[in-house]
């Protein structure tokens, strides 16, 4: 089996290099990132992630991983990824909702987030279209609008 193409740009990197790169823009470790990516891309006909297969084939799929993972290790890394997403979202929206940052600061942060997303997607060998980047910004703006309405209503 050839190395999984999503990690081709990381061929000469170590696990630590990848974690360091990710920590520049996310809260994820290399382990969480690769497991989340593989779980999203390798699903069975029931749309469930093939955790046992992913763990067993990890060294063949990812250039900077030397050992296979158990199904439990894959499951734990995937759960950690999801917990960090929720915590990051809570942090992001709380700062605005609680008035800790201004609308202008939030807009600036959103532009930086979209820029960081583009870097991560390009690292995986894909491209982010301007349409998709605009859609991400529109969705975030809609959530912020709903937060503003909620604050005005006293919730």
Mean pLDDT: 88
Count of helix runs: 6
Portion in beta strands: under 5%
Report Rg: 18 Å
Order of helices and strands: HHHHHH
The helix fraction, in percent, is 55-70%
Number of domains: 1
The first-to-last residue Cα distance is: 54 Å
Reported for the largest beta sheet, the result is: none
> What is the global morphology?
elongated
Low-confidence stretches: none
Structural class: mainly alpha
> Quick one: how many beta strands?
0
What does this structure look like?
The protein has 155 residues and is mainly α. The chain has one domain. It contains six helices and no strands. Helix 2 packs across helix 4 and helix 5 packs antiparallel against helix 6. The radius of gyration is 18 Å and the shape is elongated.
Tags for this entry?
single chain, 155 residues, mainly alpha, 6 helices
